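Q: Convert this sequence to structure tokens.
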Amino acid sequence: MTLRLNRSNTEWRASVGNGGQILLAPSGAIQPALNRRSPISPPERQAQRNLARIQSIGLSSNNSQLVVRTDRQVSYTSGWDQQSRAYWIRLASSSLAGSIPQLDENSPVSFTATQEDAETVVIWVQPRSGVEVGRVTRSNPQSLSLQLRRATASTQPSFSRNSNLQPLPRNSVEPGDLPRVSNSRPVVVIDPGHGGRDPGAIGIGGIQEKEIVLDISFQVTRLLEQQGVQVVMTRTDDSEIDLQPRVSLAERVNASIFVSIHANAISMSRPDVNGIETYYFDSGEALARTIHASMVQGTGANDRRVRQARFYVLRKSSMPSVLLEMGFVTGAEDAVRLADPAYRSVMAASIARGILLYLQQN
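A:
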């Protein structure tokens, strides 16, 4: 490095700052105090943030896991991207340690690792045909493992031409058929259950409750807003939210009704258990029965009745509140349907119709 000096002043003073920098000032200028913080260089800024470094991403010896190794423990979220059908893992307070080698073409998955911002790394995982992605586990403080397995006929959550499932009803609810609320603009809180580190129920084929309910909740919200309803969602991404903040949000916005959306589960040894259940505690019975009837009629799913229960979000909310169990992710019929985008759209329209009918009548 060369510093060109003005001919009129060739007398300079040099000192060393706390960060190791060489500080230059003309003779007679104010001398920088030794304890004054000097400008921070990019490497120092990264060190100050104490970012974890992603050291490697690769497969386990038996190809059953995609393993992400870091130099320290990291916080993460994960989920499916509905548009690209890729699975993402977002690592907080992290940076990439240079270029990460790609997997070969015969690997069960491919991936792309990107530095989303200065402190966040996102790994996009694309399964090959016939490969299922499970959940992310922490095998040790410096390692995250994404479970992989070959899909089988009994676990692949997709429709088959030889399936015994009943087709979707021809009179399924369409958005254009939904009633419109015209008297006032009610506020509806839609509560997608679980999220973040809490996946909820995990069912056949590795489908996760938190992903199903968020997708359907977004669709319900859009349909309600199209009919003049103001909607507030308790979460709009893969966030982990405790129960009380969900209720507090509904109280704060003075919600007319509170609808918590979930998927059910039972032992994997009981794939015969399928159907819709709806729960209320106190003032939500009429709301529960209206939405439940619309869900059963719109989807043709098994009717497992409306029930009273003491779920926290039902007990602690002052407005009519319900908790919907849209089907069993462990059920042979429900798991296939809940994994299908077309069925999810029918379910969302059925829920929206039930909500709108209740608002019209009340």
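The helical segments are 42-49, 209-226, 243-252, 285-299, 312-315, 332-338, 341-361.
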